[in-house]
Amino acid sequence: MGIRKFKPTTPSRRWMSGNDFSEITKNKPEKSLTLPLKRTGGRNVYGRITVRHRGGGHKRLLRIIDFKRDLFEIPAKVIAIEYDPNRTARLALVEYPNKERRYVICPEGLKVGSEIISSNEKNAEIKTGNTLLLRYIPSGTMIHNIELMKGMGGQIVRSAGSTAQITAKEDASAHIRLPSGEIRRISLDCHATIGQVSNIEHEAITWGKAGRMRWRGIRPTVRGAAMNAVDHPHGGGEGKSGQGNPHPVSPWGQPTKGYKTRKKTKYSDKFIIKRRR
Known about the structure:
With 277 residues, the chain is mainly β. The protein has a domain at 24-34 and 57-202: SH3 type barrels, CATH 2.30.30.30. The chain has one helix and 15 strands; from the N terminus they run ββββββββββββββαβ. The strands form four sheets. It has a seven-stranded antiparallel sheet with strand order 9-14-10-11-12-13-15, with no helix packed on it. It has a four-stranded antiparallel sheet with strand order 7-6-5-8, with no helix packed on it. A two-stranded antiparallel sheet has the order 1-2. The model has no long low-confidence stretch (mean pLDDT 95).
């Protein structure tokens, strides 16, 4: 796993970099674990754009991933490490003794031939890739793919290189330091997977040209100050003009860039010990 740099044959190639995919052992996805993925182009059921800058991009298949890891006390063998175009992390294809295959989020250091297990037992091994109850994972351990509610499957800390840490345990909950710096209480009856998510160097990639973003389905983003006054509150003016507003706003006048939109009385406030800010 590493970063591949290109020769500067064109101006866009000069600083461009990408993955070398040296850890990938299988080029095509498992057919039984894929579904067709319909693109929305950022549009809702009425055909109106609700998320801007989406559209185009390469055709993809959806990989069905086992976030729950609910085959307990049965060891599974890693038979392949695969690329997933829908996420930044790599996937591990695992096979159980009954020949059932599943995709799981691949942690850093997991290799083909490794054995992993999901367990509710106290004496389960603390090993990369194993999924255990938070009550049986020692404080200070790095974890990912964490459940927020028992039985729902991992919902947080799933992107490339991310990891959380158990800082303490109190009553029926664990204190988890998330990648954002937030410390949050999560029930000890929730599951989490040991280790750090794979593809750590993803952040170091330089895309190099607009075309690579188009391949990913990301369309151009234009500054409001570069628009006409009719199109954006920051637009208009003679020559190069500033935004004009005392604070930056969205095209619809909503304050942006640091403006807090979180509800004052959100239900999860009681679980947050320390804010990420």
